[in-house]
Amino acid sequence: MSLRTEQQQAEIIREFLITMGQSLQQYQYSFACSAELSRHEFNVLYILRLRGPIVVKEIAQQLPAVSLSTLTRLLDSLEQKSFIERKLDPCDRRSFIISPTDEAHRLMEHFPQHCECFVQRITQSLTSEEQTTLAELFIKIKAHQ
To answer: pLDDT by residue (tens digit) across 21-58?
Structure first.
C-alpha cells in the first residue's frame, strides 16, 4: 500500500463519510417510508430509542435543523400514530416528557435489522481481522466524540 499525505488521507476519509452518510440516509428513508413516517418523525423515534423518555427541549437540541413549531407538529403526528405519549414533567410543569410507546419500541427494534445489508456492504471486502480492526477504530472514535 502506498503512503499518502495527510491531505490525501483526509480527502479519502471525507469522501468515505459523505458516501456512507448518503447511503445510511437512504436506508433510514426507506425504513421510514415503510412505516409511513417522515424523515423527521423517524429521527424523533430514533432519539427516543437511544435516550428513552426525554423532555421536548432535549429532542429539540438533538434536531437543530427543526424549529420548535415543526417539532410540535411532529410530536402531534407521532402521538396520533400512537408512537409517543406526552406527560407533564413533574419537575417543570411548563414542559412535557415524551415517551416512546410499545408500538414505537416494536417498530424501532427492526431498524438495525433493516440496516444489516448496509453493514454487510461496507464490510464484505474486508477480512475478519480487518473487520475487527475497523470495529475497534469505530469504538475509539466514538469514545472521543
So the answer is: 998 888 889 999 999 999 999 999 999 999 989 999 99
- Residue 87's beta-bridge partner residues? 97
Q: Give the DSSP per-residue string, 54-100.
A: EEHHHHHHH-TTS-HHHHHHHHHHHHHTTSEEEEEETTEEEEEEEEE
| Confidence (pTM) | 0.78
Total structural domains within the chain: 1
Q: Which three cell numbers stand for residue 136?
A: 475497534
Q: Is 145 within the bounds of a domain?
A: no
8 CB-contact burial (10 Å; exposed 0-12 / middle 13-18 / buried 19+): exposed
Which residue range(s) make up the domain with 19? 1-125
